[in-house]
Amino acid sequence: MIAIIDYGMGNIHSVQKALEHFGARTRVISRAQELDSCDKAVLPGVGAFCDAMKALQAAGLDAALQAYIKSKRPFLGICLGMQLLFSESQEAPGTRGMGVLAGKVRRFDPDTGVKIPHMGWNRLRIVRRDCPIMQGVAEASYVYFCHSYYPENQSAEQTAASCEYGISFTSVVWQENVYGVQFHPEKSQATGLKMLDNFVHLC
To answer: Does domain 2-200 have CATH number 3.30.930.10?
Structure first.
């Protein structure tokens, strides 16, 4: 059973439909105790870092998700859901993230000449071919982005794929049982769906 975390800030139904396309049994949950019966979890997210952390904390889901991750069950953060795994964000000074991954979320610098937000299709550069959710994904595959902030890792080993947008930034993270994608796999056609398929079939 895959838990899809509903805290009022995610593309719940499109993610659920994509996962179920690959035979997954899913459950949309909004209470911490519901995580206990699930063997995988997905945290979608669209919106502001501060609002998202407040919503998770109000439902007791921040601590529950950290405990879930420590149990070594597979976890996938999508877009804002990936950013929440880090310690803090430039978007919300003073707001602590979940701190599962080392690093800070930063805003794209307009001085690099790029438009903000980064919206549309862009190519992946695969950094770690051994990442389980990247299996079968071709180099330079296109995925769909919509974001103004990106994770700045403190550990290069966490980066499974990167992307170029004024700078090179991490677009896929992987640390043990934790996966995160900055793009929207449910909107990324064959490439994104392949990654979700890989996640569904993780042992």
So the answer is: no
